[in-house]
Amino acid sequence: MKRVKTILMIGFLIFPAITLFSQIDSTMIYYRGIDNKELITICELSDIQIKKIFCKDTLLRGKVFNIIIREYKKGKIRSEKNFNIKAEVQRIPMVINGKSIIYNIDYTDKTGFGKSTDSLTVTFAGLWRKNNFKLNIKYPGISVTHNLKGKSNYSLRPVDPCSESKLIVPINTEYPILAYTPPFNTGTELLSYCILGEEDALDWYDKFNVKHYYVFFVEIK
User: Fold this and answer.
1) Tens of pLDDT along 93-125?
2) Does 106 or 21 have the greater pLDDT score?
3) N or C: which end of the chain has fewer CB within 10 A?
4) Where are the domains of the chain?
5) What residues have CB less than 8 Å from 38, skipping those under 6 apart?
6) CA-to-CA distance for 31 and 120, rounded, in angstroms?
7) Contact 127, 110 (CB under 8 A)
8) Distance separating alpha carbons of residues 101 and 170, to the nearest angstrom
9) What is the DSSP letter of 36?
10) Residue 158 — very low, low, confident or very high, per pLDDT cuts 50/70/90?
11) 130: left (phi over 0), alpha (psi -120 to 50) or beta
C-alpha cells in the first residue's frame, strides 16, 4: 500500500511537468517558393508573386495562424488589415431540401493545426496591375483577399530576404514574417532588397528612407 501511494505521488508530480513542457513558446516556420522553372517564368511575365510559409509542429494542435497586414508610410502605420482568425468552431444554420441543419466550420482544421493536422502551408499570391497588388492568402480550408498599393518594383518577400529559409516565431505574439516593399535606393545604380534585412522591418524608413511598404505579421494562437 505504501508503494502504491509513492507511485501515485510521483505520478502527480510528473504529470504537471509533462503538461508544462508540452506548452511551447515558439515554433519554426520555413519559407517556400515555386520550384517549377517554367511556372516561375510565367509568373514573372504576368506580374504574379508567390510566397509560402510551411510549419510542421504537432504541438501546435488547437492553434490557428492569424495574419495581420500593416501599411507603413514614412515610418508610421497608415492602415491595418487584421483577418481576426480565431481557434473556434463557427455554427452556421442552413436549410437543405427543406430541412434545417447546422454546418460547423472548425477554424483550427482550416487555418491551423486541427486534431489530425501534421503540417500547415499558407500561400501568399498576388497579381500586380496598375499600382494595385491583389493579394490572395490561401489556407488549407479557406482563402482571404486584400488589395495593396505598390509599384512594379515592389517585391513580396521574407522580412529578412537574404537570411536562411527559416524563422523562429513566438507563440501568442504578432511577429513579422513577410514584406511587400520597394528596394533600398543606394544612391547609385544599385538597388537592394537584401540590405533591408539588416534592420528591423519597422525601422526601414529611419534606416533606409523606404517611404512606403507593408509588413505581414503572423499570430499563432
Assistant:
1) 988 888 888 888 889 999 999 998 999 999 999
2) 106
3) N
4) 23-220
5) none
6) 12
7) no
8) 39
9) -
10) very high
11) left
